[in-house]
Amino acid sequence: MRVGKVDRSGSGVIRARAAETTKLFFRSVSTTVDPATGLTPPQHEGYSLTHDFVLRTEDGRWKIDSTTPHLDGSALPPPTQADKTMKAPQNDTVTAKSDKPAPRVERPNSAPTPDSGATPNRQGFTPRAEEAKTVAAPLDWLAMLAYADRWWGQVPDSQEFYNPEFRKYGNDCTNFFSQIILRGGLEPVGYWWNRTDPDVWFYGPSGEGFTAYSWAAAHNNAVYMYNFSGHTRDLVAGDPYGVWKAQPADVMYVNWDHPPNDPNGEGNLDHTMFVSGREAYPEDPTWPYAKEIFLTYHTNNRHNVPLTSVMFRDGWSNKDGWSALHTF
After folding, report:
1. Where is the composition biased (Basic and acidic residues) (predicted)?
2. Residue ranges of the domains in the chain?
3. pTM above the 0.85 mark?
């Protein structure tokens, strides 16, 4: 628990805001170096929650009078819960002036394992060290990982414990990813007067009205990154298990109400998650499909959450549509 803002203006009353961060260590994640990145997989996941405390004096002692956690009912719930009523934010439904598609989505469940006897689809999977030799002006993927590690949770004395250089959105997942890839070197494009266009992506410090739709809305962001950024490749196209090829510094989008299984679903991508880790199979580290992938995101604030715990949050549901873009 880290204390942030403290208000002592009241007589005999102190109001304080604190950030609670919990680490849950994995029991069986290996420490095998991932040949795709040269990194070892995360060994724990993190959960962060803000609390407001009111303390009062009584008989010369300070006592906690009340505590209020900041629970966002509209946000993505913890992986152990399910909210089948959650829909996309309103501006996620807008893809103005464009017939450009979003990345392909699939309902992949588990990918083939090394001992399955299957022949893996290696298309679209290239270790970053090899890829860097072929890409002009590549993104700084290590800087992206460092930014996500720094700003995934609440940091006292910041704006709602987020990076104070950026405003916070009610559904902050895509805003957070935009900050990450901006830190990686993706150049902003566009101006406030064409903020609704699909081929622009930028942040306006003056307010939401001066910021591109693609900055903070999941579906719009996916359309931009897929069609216009010049720094992504679709991992799912041509491979229904392609999400399991994602590497650290890639991005995933999910449609919680994928239309083929939910005729009432609106069909848009609802949530953006940054890939912050990958566990290779120890018995075959070059197998293109990961044993586990780890995700970091806002709303709610989570760090290195296993993909399986998010993907199968409804008890191995095959309902949701997943998309993955490799960044380079």
Report:
1. 97-107
2. 2-70, 141-327
3. no
